[in-house]
Amino acid sequence: MSKKIVLATGNAGKVAEMQSQLSELGVDVIPQSQFDFPEAIEDGLSFVENALIKARHACKHTGLAAIADDSGLEVDALDGQPGIYSSRYSDGPTPADRGDEANNVKLLNALEKHGNRSARFQCVLVYMQHELDPTPIICQGTWNGEIARSHQGKNGFGYDPIFYVPELSCHAAELTPEQKKQFSHRGNAMTELKHKLISSLSFDSKTP
Question: For residue 208, is it within any domain?
Answer without folding.
Answer: no
